[in-house]
Design a protein that fits this description.
16% strand; Rossmann fold; alpha/beta; 13 strands; 40% helix; UDP-galactose 4-epimerase, domain 1; two-stranded parallel ribbon; 13 helices; binds nicotinamide-adenine-dinucleotide; seven-stranded parallel sheet
Length: 340
């Protein structure tokens, strides 16, 4: 099996590439290294089954060429997270909408099945007890760039469904909720690597608001095999699946666990929202996945505890040779509780 992974040099992409190579695939990575890094592929780089092409999904020639050489595609390349899109709205929208349509068109034309990575951000401000796949989306104004990541990923899903319905594209959508693990960069606002980095450096852990906002974190080691299983399950085609952690945790509690597990004596500093965010920024109080659909179809049952996730991120940081992993700009910290 020859598999294309767009965004394969990213955090999740790097883990997915490792998994696919281990199961015997030949893997072609297409990545422009905008937020990814070849260091995310360092464990696979000498594998004879790996080929890396530095190029953009915005380049239809590169996309057509790459899709034409494979049997299936995992499309992960994206401008990821609210912070990046707020800072670079135009380029991010182009990547996430036009880039994805290039992939959808090439897969349709060449009759290649596709797994599309979407996000829990699409549910926006819906804080329902458990968000099922048909839950309503509650988004703020399209003129607030905070919502355009969710808007663009929503358009991607609608495009994918339309190509499936009208042209028979074999596409499966996964909506990932706060996926965490070694090699995730803190500088794009991801809360776990940010707080673990602060703990290891002996800096106070900055938690925004009252810290009672909650998230459900999942380990990349649970998510990647589930993504691959869904891509290999014919009954999943044409549908979307939540993939998230099972346990809800308040960010303040998360910070305490991080201090305990890393043995850090850093304290926790609560930062009021109006200091942490641009005026008008809206954070979600909670976001809880209903994983029932994936559980019923593929037996999805993520087991990695939050303590093990924290320990894995800390070990990854301590072993990292990548200076970047240690960089946490203040801007990165500023949006940490909201990204997914
Ligand atoms: N990490 C999470 O918690 C999470 C949650 C929900 C959804 N997702 C989705 O999972 C996917 C992977 O996210 P990640 O966390 O690994 O982020 P990441 O930033 O590490 O990976 C994205 C990759 O896409 C590449 N890329 C960006 N623009 C590109 C372009 N124009 N052409 C080619 N490559 C390009 C980047 O260089 C990077 O390697 C994304 O689609 C994201 O929306 C992630």
């Amino acid at each position: 099996m020859r598999t294309l992974v767009t965004g394969g040099a990213g955090f999740i992409g790097g883990h997915l590439v490792e998994h696919l190579l281990e199961q015997g695939d030949e893997v072609l990575v297409l990545d422009d290294l905008s937020t990814g890094s070849l260091s995310n592929l360092r464990t696979s780089r000498r594998h004879p089954g790996l080929e890396v092409e530095i190029g953009s999904i915005l380049d239809p020639v590169a996309v057509n060429d790459a899709v034409g050489r494979v049997d299936r595609v995992f499309h992960l390349a994206a401008a990821v997270g609210v912070k990046l899109i707020v800072e670079h709205p135009l380029q991010s929208l182009r990547t996430n909408i036009h880039g994805t349509e290039n992939i959808l068109m090439a897969c349709t034309e060449k009759d290649v099945p596709l797994l599309l990575a979407s996000t829990s951000e699409i549910y926006g401000k819906n804080t329902a007890d458990k968000l099922s796949e048909d839950a309503d989306r509650i988004l703020g104004s399209p003129l607030k760039s905070r919502w355009t990541y969710a808007a663009a990923k929503g358009i991607d899903e609608s495009f994918a469904k339309a190509y499936h319905d009208e042209h028979g594209l074999q596409v499966t959508i996964v909506r990932l909720f706060n996926t965490v693990g070694p090699r995730q960069k803190g500088r794009y606002g991801m809360v776990v690597p940010n707080l673990v980095g602060q703990a290891l450096r002996g800096e106070p852990l900055t938690v925004f608001g009252d810290g009672r906002q909650t998230r459900c974190f999942s380990s990349v080691n649970d998510i990647v095999p589930a993504v691959v299983r869904l891509a290999e399950t014919p009954a999943a085609v044409g549908q979307a699946f939540n993939l998230g952690g099972q346990h809800e945790i308040a960010i303040l509690h998360l910070a305490s666990r991080i201090l305990e597990i890393t043995g850090s004596h850093s304290g926790i500093r609560l930062v009021p929202y109006d200091q942490a965010y641009a005026p008008g920024y809206e954070d979600m109080r909670r976001r809880v996945p209903d994983n029932a659909k994936a559980r019923e179809l593929i037996g999805f049952d993520p087991q990695t505890s939050i303590d093990d996730i924290i320990a894995g991120v800390a070990a990854g940081l301590l072993n990292s040779v990548d200076e970047d992993d240690w960089v946490m700009s203040q801007a990165g910290a500023d949006l940490q509780v909201a990204t997914s």
